[in-house]
Write a structure and sequence with these properties.
The complex is a heterodimer of chains A (about 220) and B (about 220). By secondary structure, chain A is an all-alpha fold. Chain A is about 75% helix and about 0% strand. Chain A has one domain. Classes of the chains: A mainly alpha (about 220), B mainly alpha (about 220).
Chain lengths: ~220, ~220
């Protein structure tokens, strides 16, 4: 199996997406308006929300890969599920780091039980269990099925967790940047650009990670 | 076939009393710890009592489902069970229903010591408290049985069960605490009906998912 970046298209994608990422950082710093009361702290919003979007998209892909793995019995879907779970958890970790950084100047404390942040945290904990079963589960073929099942039930649980946390403490101030459609275009367009670039980065990372896992499986299990 | 599987679960428990007895003793130990760590005014304890009750149930459930699935592992009984020509989803359903029965029996026994050791009065609307608690037991056990079914044959299952179970069951615990608080303080149904809906949605979604997934999880 060839190196991932030996392929000319993948190299081109890497250069293109890296350039877009650099442009995105420049765009966020210089071309977005300062929001009163939030100042520089608000800039993290252009990273925090796209990270959350990518994290949840990734966990949706884990669920779809899990269903496909059960239906098709094809190891490829297990690889997709594992790769998506790893990258999803990376982005969810970013959300859990950038959330408190943003919250500290806005709410005066790093953590409140805001429904989205809480749902993200609970999902993060479930995925820690997912990786534990992947690492220590034992029998390789069984672990693939267990992991697929956890990926499915974790995502099924998301709406229930979100609704219950929302009703649990309705007095808690919600996300500081709600009603995206009502945002001025100076904020909305850079945000949408950032969202698209993060999604592109995600799919490149997913493609790369799938390649690496397939390579590893080929070396270790010869499959 | 479901009835036969359920009978098997109940018969084993009737003979060994392993699950209910271990859950009961563990529950009493937790109450003891709560009593020693909450030596404050009765009003404060009453505010926290529903949360404490469901925390105790959560710990006890972890122990119970782990025990209930572990004895299947002994003598490789589970391999024999899944090699039988039955719908494997029914194995999950029998574990869920039997687990709920064990948990309910344990709760019936432990509810009086719980309130008396914490120096609280028994709930005035005891029937409503019991009915809502049984519904909550169904929801807790639907998640617990599925998690235990997934991790039972994995290594370190005793660690994996609580690690996966606690975050997955968090909406049920929030709802359970809110419902019990509402019932204990005599709030009207309208104030806690949303939490009942959350419990009902868990009772619908998780058993459906468990019934469907169990066939794939237990494949050899």
């Amino acid at each position: 199996m060839q190196s991932f970046f030996y392929n000319k298209n993948n190299r081109l994608l890497l250069v293109l997406i890296s350039s877009l990422l650099i442009f995105n950082i420049y765009n966020i710093i210089s071309n977005t308006p300062m929001v009163p009361d939030q100042h520089w702290a608000q800039k993290i919003f252009y990273v925090h929300v796209p990270s959350a979007w990518v994290g949840f998209l990734s966990y949706l892909i884990v669920m779809i890969a899990g269903i496909m793995f059960f239906l098709k019995k094809n190891d490829y879907w297990d690889t997709v599920g594992l790769a998506a779970a790893e990258i999803g958890t990376l982005f969810i970790t970013l959300v859990l780091i950038t959330g408190p950084i943003w919250a500290t100047p806005i709410w005066g404390k790093p953590w409140i039980w805001e429904p989205r942040l809480t749902t993200t945290f609970i999902l993060f904990l479930i995925y820690i269990g997912y990786f534990m079963i992947r690492s220590f589960g034992g029998h390789v073929e069984r672990v693939k099925r267990y992991a697929a099942a956890i990926g499915i039930i974790a995502f099924l649980d998301v709406p229930i967790i979100f609704v219950s946390v929302q009703f649990w403490a309705p007095e808690i101030q919600s996300h500081p940047q709600v009603e995206m459609a009502n945002q001025p275009s100076g904020i909305l367009f850079p945000f949408l650009i950032s969202l698209c670039i993060f999604t592109l980065v995600y799919f490149l990372m997913l493609k790369f990670r799938i390649h690496v896992i397939q390579l590893k499986n080929k070396v270790i299990y010869n499959v | 076939m479901f009835i036969s599987l359920l009978k098997k679960e109940l018969f084993i428990e009737f003979r060994s009393r392993e699950v209910i007895l271990s859950m009961l003793i563990f529950g009493l130990s937790i109450i003891l710890a709560f009593a020693f760590t909450t030596n404050v005014s009765k009003i404060i304890v009453l505010n926290y009592a529903p949360g404490m009750f469901w925390i105790m149930i959560l710990f006890v459930t972890t122990l119970g489902v782990h025990r209930s699935f572990t004895y299947e592992k002994n003598f490789d009984a589970f391999s024999l069970l899944i090699s039988a020509p039955i719908d494997r989803g029914l194995i999950y359903l029998s574990k869920w229903i039997s687990g709920t029965i064990f948990l309910t029996v344990m709760e019936i026994i432990i509810i009086i010591p719980f309130f008396k050791f914490l120096l609280l009065d028994l709930p005035s609307n005891f029937i409503l408290f019991s009915v809502t608690s049984i519904l909550i037991n169904f929801a807790i056990m639907s998640v617990a049985s599925l998690v235990a079914g997934i991790s039972m044959r994995a290594n370190l299952s005793e660690v994996l069960v609580p690690i996966l179970f606690f975050p997955l069951v968090s909406p049920v615990i929030i709802a359970a605490t809110k419902i019990s608080s509402g019932v204990l303080s005599g709030d009207p149904y309208q104030l806690w009906q949303i939490w009942l809906l959350i419990i009902v949605s868990v009772i619908v979604i998780f058993p459906l998912a468990g019934y469907t997934l169990f066939d794939f999880i237990t494949e050899e």
